[in-house]
Design a protein that fits this description.
The protein has 450 residues and is of the alpha+beta class. The protein is built from 20 helices and eight strands. Helix 13 links the parallel strand 4 and strand 5.
């Protein structure tokens, strides 16, 4: 209540100051970048808290009246003209070179900070400023188009957002059928892995005794989940998504559950892209589940492989024989998975290729191709199992030939797996996955795998 009182008080003072500010402004609904930049300059020069808050709110309001061309000009000016104070930076460098010490190093650090970072901090003081800046970054990402100058601006914004959205400010909340309707509606809207069709579908995912949903929230974005995970409690590790989402499935009694399956993780804020919440979320949810259900001993994902089909179609050095390549052409048939003989033949080719995709294939920069794999392996998980025909939805067939995978989170191995992946690029994988490269299916693979 105290926080709400002071927030309302600040907003009232800010609004009164904005009224005075607007008396000298004409035709305010017709904005261009130069008008906005003049106000930004005044905001950086302002010393008063209330007037600065009002000015920050006015900047954000006027920004909304810019068209794409105006926003591009505004971002360009911030990147070009709001860098470090060059004279102060040169002086700090010379002082450091003359007699380096900790104090001079600190001066050098602050002198090198771009002025746009302080501008962004002051904009964040406005009521609702944090959410406005997250939305502003969405606009920036949309218009960047490879610009190095704008990439520099984006790096500064991301640096500040990373500080404001660090783990210490995040609050974990369980989402269930008693959660506010506006939050539940956002879970439906933001679900990015397995579409939630309607309210009944949502209830099946969060209400039964063997279902859980958790989300991270931030105090500055009220009732706005930043990332959420859907969890199924099962007796064994599942190999397909359809049984988990079936309308007529029988819930598993909580006392019989031994496995927690993270089958959908969705980031909700594009403006916070590149700021990692997922690793913290999974680890904290594991801790929550272990406290609630001590008999749980296995924590896995059931994950899509969104880049696999694209790799199959575009890789120039696909390690497969002519016979195997001819079989892969059958994937263009919409009903290939319904033909038992064809499906069995394709399995002997695709499963070893999937193992190669995770264990050997890399981008030109040496990264794993699959974004989901990068996320889980970077968090210290182990590639546990490749699931043949795990996702027969149109999206699953189109993106991964129906392949899904299980990543295993074993708490005692997370740190070791993470270090090996980050430092040596090693993928922690089960013996079952590694054996796929040596299986009978390898007779269809090119000798380059040997």
């Amino acid at each position: 209540m105290a926080n709400a009182f002071f927030t309302d008080l600040l907003a009232t003072i800010s609004e009164r100051s904005r009224t005075l500010l607007r008396r000298g402004v004409s035709n305010e609904t017709k904005q261009d970048a130069s008008d906005l930049l003049e106000l930004c300059h005044a905001l950086l020069s302002s010393r008063g808290e209330a007037s600065g808050t009002a000015m920050a709110r006015e900047v954000l309001d006027r920004y909304h009246h810019l068209d794409d061309e105006g926003r591009l000009a505004f971002f360009g000016a911030l990147a070009r003209d709001y860098g470090p104070d060059r004279e102060k930076l040169i002086q700090a460098i010379e002082t450091w070179r003359a007699q380096p010490d900790n104090g001079d190093a600190s001066d050098l650090h602050f002198a090198s900070e771009p002025r746009r970072q302080e501008l962004i901090r002051r904009l964040n003081r406005a009521p609702g400023g944090t959410s406005e800046l997250v939305a502003m970054r969405v606009d920036l990402l949309r218009v960047m188009k490879g610009s190095r100058d704008l990439a520099t601006l984006d790096r500064d914004i991301t640096h500040l957002l990373s500080s404001w959205f660090n783990r210490g400010f995040l609050v974990l909340r369980r989402i269930d059928w008693s959660s506010p309707a506006n939050i539940l509606e956002k879970i439906i809207r933001y679900e990015a892995v397995h579409e939630i069709r309607d309210w009944d579908d949502l209830r099946r995912r969060i209400d039964p005794v063997d279902r859980r949903c958790y989300a991270f929230f931030h105090p500055a974005l009220v009732d706005e989940p930043l990332i959420f995970v859907e969890v199924a409690l099962t007796e064994t590790i599942p190999g397909a998504i359809a049984p988990l989402l079936a309308e007529d499935r029988q819930p598993v009694p909580a006392e019989r559950a031994r496995t927690a399956v993270f089958y959908s993780i969705s980031n909700t804020q594009r403006g916070l892209g590149g700021i990692s919440f997922g690793s913290f979320l999974i680890k904290q949810v594991v801790e929550e589940l272990q406290r609630e259900l001590p008999k749980l001993d296995t924590f896995v994902t059931l994950s899509p492989v969104p880049g696999f089909m694209q790799w199959l179609k575009q890789a120039n050095d696909l390690p497969v024989s002519d016979e195997g390549r001819a079989l892969l052409e059958q994937l263009d048939r919409p009903d290939w998975h319904e033909n038992a003989d064809l499906s069995a033949q394709l399995r002997t080719v695709i499963e070893p290729l999937a193992a190669y995709y995770f264990l050997k294939a890399r981008t030109p920069k040496g990264r794993l191709i699959d974004s989901v794999a990068r996320f889980h392996l970077g968090n210290g998980a182990r590639l546990e199992r490749i699931d043949w025909l795990g996702d027969l939805s149109p999206k699953g067939l189109r993106e991964s030939a129906g392949i899904m995978v299980n990543y295993l989170y074993r708490l005692e191995d997370i740190e070791k797996n993470h270090e090996a992946y980050v430092n040596q690029g090693e993928v922690a994988a089960s013996s079952a996955v590694k054996k796929l490269l040596k299986s009978e299916g390898r007779r269809l693979l090119d000798m380059r795998l040997s």
